[in-house]
Amino acid sequence: MHVKVVCVGGGPAGLYLAILLKRQDPSHDITVHERNPEGSTYGWGVTYWRGLLDKLREHDPDSAREVETHSVRWSDGIAHVRDLTTRHQGDQGFGIGRHRLLDLLAGRARALGVRLEYESELTEPPAGADLVVAADGVHSALRTRHADRFGTRISSGRNHYIWLGTTRVFDSFTFAFTETEHGWIWAYGYGYSADHSTCVVECAPETFTGLGLDRADEGEGLALLEKLFADVLDGHPLIARSGASWLHFRTLTNRSWHHGNLVLLGDAAHTTHYSIGAGTTLALEDAMCLAGALREHSGLPEALAAYERRRQAELLSVQSAARYSAQWYENLPRYIHLPPHRMFALLGQRHSPLLPYVPPQLYYGLDKAAGQLEVLRRLKRWLGPRAARALHARRH
Hints:
Elements: E1 4-8, H1 12-24, E2 29-34, E3 45-49, H2 50-59, H3 61-69, E4 72-81, E5 84-97, H4 98-111, E6 115-118, E7 131-134, H5 141-145, H6 147-150, E8 152-156, E9 160-166, E10 173-180, E11 183-191, E12 197-203, H7 205-210, H8 218-228, H9 230-233, E13 238-239, E14 250-254, E15 258-259, E16 262-264, H10 279-296, H11 300-330, H12 340-348, H13 360-372, H14 374-395
Parallel strand pairs: 1-2, 1-7, 2-6, 4-10, 7-16
Antiparallel strand pairs: 3-5, 4-5, 8-14, 9-12, 9-13, 10-11, 11-12, 15-16
Helix pairs in contact: 1-4, 1-10, 2-3, 3-4, 10-11, 13-14
């Protein structure tokens, strides 16, 4: 069936959906509209894990090969707390520059016959399209026009954060926690190319104002952060993209993901806190799911309903993990005074619904024991969600 698809937003989700639909049926008429000029992008590098690479290979081996070739990889996590350092081995992670990822996906889409229209902003669904895909991000103009239909809800996190880059190339996923007289400030760093890393800095509101970051201009702010993280930066500068600013993370959910022939994809549909490093992965998985639903169902309403049902169900556990992860950092003083190896172990457990309700030293001991005894591990998996639900209910 020949279908005319208009995709609004040329990020990873929109481009990958266009690739998958063209592979399913080359006769589909697909146009991607992106409001920014080609080659301009916000952000530095994105992270993903082996599971995503396996799915990319399954859906389009050509683009998967290019993505893997241009990615850097690491398997260790390292945490610097004051002047102490601890290292943990973990799953293999990957980093790729957002600019490079978009370039690869745009090239693949063009090769398959997708039309890419840059500097083209659509704020309302175009006439004549069978399917309109809102892949235009967290501030989606298309979704905002019908916010009541989608049941959009946005909640703002407490902490301040900023996305920066650095020429310091981290060979591990790096956490750095610095104590100041106004409280703790910390950075997450990971490499994404041979000469650059992403560096996200976060702190509580009282630390933000106490350090004067609310009043500092860009140059002053970067100089202060370079001083605070001098050890981990090893003489390298922090770099800000034009217009970079401190933000509060906005968690966005939608009750419904489709309205008529308009469907939401990626950050237009949902956001998850950056501390779990899943945003790009989830957006690409949305594209895979939507393409699959359109292939499996001949009617558009049935396809869109199936996509929404499946992705909302799959996202429940990820969204829960992201909420607990954000809360872990918002409650950092609860954990930061543990010995670094214990603090880092609980950092790895921050997605647990039980952790906020159990004294950290006790949780660490239980977790260590559970790692050695299968029966305790099963009990922890069974008890965690139930205890969290009961305690949550008592508090509200």
